[in-house]
Design goal:
With about 230 residues, the protein is of the alpha/beta class. It contains seven helices and ten strands. Helices cover about 35% and strands about 30% of the residues. Strand 1 and strand 2 form a beta hairpin. The relative contact order is 0.20.
């Protein structure tokens, strides 16, 4: 791992939100580096700042101060259009509640990021890639079903396949097992482990310490600060 380059670099990152009671500091001077091919789990209680941290890295939100660099891009220097284009091509995001489009089939949901990014020239190529990704996560036989026709665990597998559609350099997952039973969550984590074995970089936010223990590195965040990491 020491021979690999740094993919994510956060320096003195602060994030303040305005509230009726005054500014609330969700992040208080975060310094963090993640190397290429690393599987990092960020753990902490609800409200600790985990989701805010992942939103900084993916460009969903911007820091109040400090620097967020992912690959060659400094996130806070890009406007909204540039960051949306960058994220669509280079970052895959998996959410707790799947966020699949209910009127599209599982395969069509996976094809959607390819359409937006203009990758893979023809609908046939996009479908072939979607089927390949659905096979990777073990759900290819449900490709032409609507999300409502498959289980929660299967929907999350579709969401992972969709996040991988454009072969992103980073997969960011925000509590992806939080809405799943323990057996399904374990199977989902095994998918992440296979992806890391294949060279993918994963940043995982979770409150489940048992699952986090299976990552290659863990950091603990509390009150907007990293308390420890190993």
């Amino acid at each position: 791992m020491n021979n690999r380059s740094v993919l994510i670099d956060l320096k003195a990152v602060r994030k303040a939100y305005q509230t009726p009671a005054g500014d609330f500091l969700a992040l208080q001077g975060i310094d963090l580096q993640v190397q290429e091919g690393e599987f990092l789990a960020v753990v902490g209680k609800s409200g600790a700042g985990k989701s805010t941290l992942i939103n900084m890295v993916t460009g969903i939100d911007r820091p109040t101060s400090g620097e967020v660099r992912v690959g060659t891009q400094t996130i806070q220097d890009m406007n909204e259009d540039r960051i949306a284009t960058w994220r669509g091509k280079h970052v895959g995001v998996v959410f707790q509640f799947f966020q699949l489009l209910p009127m599209l089939t599982c395969a069509e949901n996976v094809m959607m990021p390819m359409d937006f990014a203009g990758l893979y020239r023809s609908p046939r190529e996009r479908r072939q890639r979607a089927l390949h990704l659905l096979e990777q996560v073990g759900i290819a036989d449900h490709a032409d079903k609507l999300p409502s026709a498959v289980s929660g665990g299967q929907r999350q597998r579709v969401a992972i396949a969709r996040a991988l559609a454009n072969d992103p350099m980073l997969l960011a997952a925000d509590e992806p097992t939080g809405n799943l039973d323990s057996r399904t969550a374990d199977a989902m984590f095994a998918v992440f482990e296979r992806l890391v074995d294949g060279g993918k970089t994963i940043l995982l936010v979770t409150h489940d310490r048992d699952l986090a223990a299976r990552a290659t590195r863990r950091v603990h965040i509390a009150d907007g600060q990293i308390q420890d990491g190993r």
